[in-house]
């Protein structure tokens, strides 16, 4: 690997860390950059190395959100534990299910998410929980395992789907949802890495190097989100979801 390739990947990791900390979707930057910079690497190496790098950033932003926002642990625990298990299961089948099966479905879901969020300006402005007691935690666990499976099997847009589910289904504001999504994302990264490490031979040195840059981006992004509040997170959410729609739309219809 040349020095310029390494610099390119480090810059991409930093940018992805910032985006991931605010609304998720950093894979929109980091994964294509790795595919471009490492054309001879296998898909398993790319996916597993990407997860290692992302883990640094998500862990840092999760700690920052945990200190600044103090998300409800009773919600975070079932969400994160089941998300990690779902991601491990998703990673196990990642090499057996063609990506082309998922992309059209994900594209439709993202379009629905974007339209729904754009047409409801008050969505996520404040926390108004939709479920009480056990039903709330069951809903959180269901969100975790379903989106965790998706992250392990496919990946792009996981953070955005987590945030939307926590806002639209459970009733959290965007800032609280972003905090919980980061903690769940740590669990999905760990679950997927454990599986990929056994099967995909991650590029550990590169993953750690990019991870340090991702960590700095995640720290800055989390602090920015906390300082700017839910309205800022909502705007960035719509921008990232729109970019994901364009990217997946290109893959489905033009690639």
UniProtKB/TrEMBL annotation:
Pfam families: TauE. It is a multi-pass membrane protein. Keywords: Cell membrane, Membrane, Transmembrane, Transmembrane helix, Transport. The chain crosses the membrane at residues 52-69, 76-95, 101-119, 131-150, 156-175, 187-212, 232-250. InterPro entries: TM_pro_TauE-like, TSUP. Its main location: membrane. GO terms for cellular component: plasma membrane. It is found in: Cell membrane. Belongs to the 4-toluene sulfonate uptake permease (TSUP) (TC 2.A.102) family. This is Probable membrane transporter protein. It comes from Kribbella amoyensis.
């Amino acid at each position: 690997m040349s020095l310029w390739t390494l610099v390119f990947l480090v810059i991409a990791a930093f940018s992805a860390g910032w985006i991931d900390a605010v609304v998720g979707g950093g894979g929109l930057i980091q994964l294509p950059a790795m595919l471009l910079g490492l054309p001879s690497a296998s898909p398993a190496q790319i996916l597993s190395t990407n997860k290692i790098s992302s883990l640094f950033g998500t862990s840092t932003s999760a700690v920052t959100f945990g200190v600044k926002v103090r998300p409800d642990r009773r919600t975070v625990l079932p969400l994160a534990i089941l998300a990690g298990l779902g991601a491990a299961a998703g990673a196990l089948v990642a090499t057996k299910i063609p990506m082309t099966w998922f992309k059209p479905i994900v594209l439709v879901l993202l379009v629905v998410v974007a339209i729904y969020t754009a047409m409801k300006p008050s969505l996520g402005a404040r926390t108004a929980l939709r479920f009480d007691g056990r039903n709330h935690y069951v809903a959180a666990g269901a969100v975790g395992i379903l989106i965790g499976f998706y992250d392990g099997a496919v990946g792009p847009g996981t953070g955005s789907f987590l945030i939307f589910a926590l806002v639209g289904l459970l009733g959290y504001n965007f800032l609280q949802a972003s905090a919980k999504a980061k903690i769940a994302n740590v669990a999905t990264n760990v679950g997927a890495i454990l599986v990929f490490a056994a099967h995909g031979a991650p590029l550990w040195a590169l993953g750690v190097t990019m991870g340090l840059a991702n960590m700095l981006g995640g720290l800055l992004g989390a602090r920015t989100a906390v300082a700017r509040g839910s309205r800022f997170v909502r705007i960035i959410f719509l921008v990232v979801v729109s970019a994901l729609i364009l990217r997946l739309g290109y893959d489905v219809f033009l690639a």
